[in-house]
Design goal:
The chain has about 375 residues and is mostly helical. Helices cover about 65% and strands about 0% of the residues. The protein starts with about 30 loop residues before the first helix and ends in a 9-residue tail after the last helix. The structure holds magnesium ion.
Length: about 375
């Protein structure tokens, strides 16, 4: 790796791990974080969790796993170009959605509603809880004992109340400070990834069309150019070329405008990154164009009646599971029963949040189905 910028996170300026460990051999501290995340159970479960389309709806749609991999690819490209810590940006990206419930945002909203009088449920906070507490793999500690900067990057937003309870990673929310540029990159990369792959998945599903998308300037400009350049190209290739160009444009824009911000705010250290305004950002023009695309997706894809029907089913599954476990914690698997004695609602939320889409559907059937369910099911 080329020499890192003076404002990058390094092992030297890192605040380290909560529990000190011997230095890793043959890899860096942030590579070790990435490796721990990849080997976690929560990471593998991302494969069967909804991004927009429920996992069984089609094999080619993004899942939380492929989404996280795309986020990490984009984040690494940006980090490298800005001479920032690529390993850290990768680790944060791969972990950013670990706390997501099954069934995407519908699942999170349902669980949050169930948890209303028990401190609420927020997937971002849950991602941190997964890496800090819930993974049970190490002899000496709960969670993955990740570096401060990785944990800080995972916690994208947080209420003042939660921040106060979280200690070190919560501090910046109370002081109105920014996280590292690597964390800011993971955040922007998330946005670039989902806006683009939701266009792709939306088109593949047939819920939105290229004609409709021509109203969106960010799409239209590339679409026209590619159609002009390759008049006989098949529709699928036109879609891929358009998305490829869009990602490139957004990544290029964010790099240029972040470089401008670094110069404008004379950033020369990690400490200055924390007190400066957000540095990683689109140019004003691109920000506006992104917003038009986001609004388009909200209206035409996320609120499409077919997506809403699935969301409504998902919400019912989550709230019915929550209610039944709250009523009788003896229905929980033994490892969650132990935690339920201390805080039943949180143990139930942890159990439900960890489920994959198909596990939640099966668990719901196992508990509620009156017709005969095979014993092995
Ligand atoms: Mg995400």
């Amino acid at each position: 790796m080329d020499k890192l910028a003076e404002f990058a996170v390094t092992e030297k300026n890192s605040r380290g791990r909560r529990l000190a460990e011997p230095a890793p051999q043959g890899r860096g501290e942030f590579q070790r974080d990435r490796d721990r995340i990849i080997h976690s159970g929560a990471f593998r479960r991302l494969e069967y969790k909804t991004q927009v389309f429920v996992n069984h709806e089609g094999d080619l749609f993004r899942t939380r796993l492929t989404h996280s991999i795309e986020v990490s690819q984009i984040a690494r490209s940006i980090a490298r170009r800005l001479r920032l810590n690529e390993d850290l940006a990768e680790a944060i990206s791969l972990a950013h959605d670990l706390g997501h419930t099954p069934f995407g945002h519908a699942g999170q909203d349902a669980l949050n509603a169930c948890m209303k009088s028990f401190g609420g449920f927020e997937h971002n906070l849950q991602s941190l809880r997964v890496v800090d507490v819930l993974e049970e793999r190490y002899a000496r500690f709960d969670g993955l004992n990740l570096c401060f900067e990785t944990r800080e990057g995972i916690l994208k937003h947080c209420s003042a109340e939660n921040a106060a309870a979280l200690g070190d990673v919560g501090e910046r929310f109370l002081r109105n400070q920014r996280p590292s540029l690597e964390a800011q990159i993971a955040n922007v990369a998330d946005e670039i990834a989902y806006n683009n792959h939701d266009v792709d998945d939306g088109l593949r599903s047939g819920l939105i069309t290229l004609d409709q998308l021509s109203e969106v300037p960010l799409v239209a400009v590339h679409l026209q150019q590619i159609r002009g350049q390759y008049p006989a190209l098949s529709e699928r290739r036109i879609v891929h070329e358009t998305i490829r160009h869009m990602i490139n444009t957004l990544v290029g824009d964010v790099i240029r405008s972040s470089e401008d911000n670094i110069r404008k705010h004379r950033i020369t250290s990690l400490a200055e990154v924390r007190t400066a305004p957000p540095i990683l950002a689109f140019s004003e023009e691109m920000f506006k164009q992104q917003r038009v695309l986001k609004n388009f997706l909200r209206t035409h894809l996320y609120r499409h009646y077919k997506v809403m029907r699935m969301s409504s089913k998902a919400q019912r599954i989550i709230s019915e599971l929550f209610a039944v476990f709250m009523e009788d914690s003896r229905l929980l698997p033994p490892q969650f029963q132990a935690h339920a004695d201390a805080d039943r609602a949180r143990a139930v939320a942890d159990y439900i949040a960890g489920m994959t889409d198909r596990y939640a559907i099966r668990e719901h059937r196992r508990i509620f189905a009156v017709e005969e369910v095979p014993l092995s099911f």
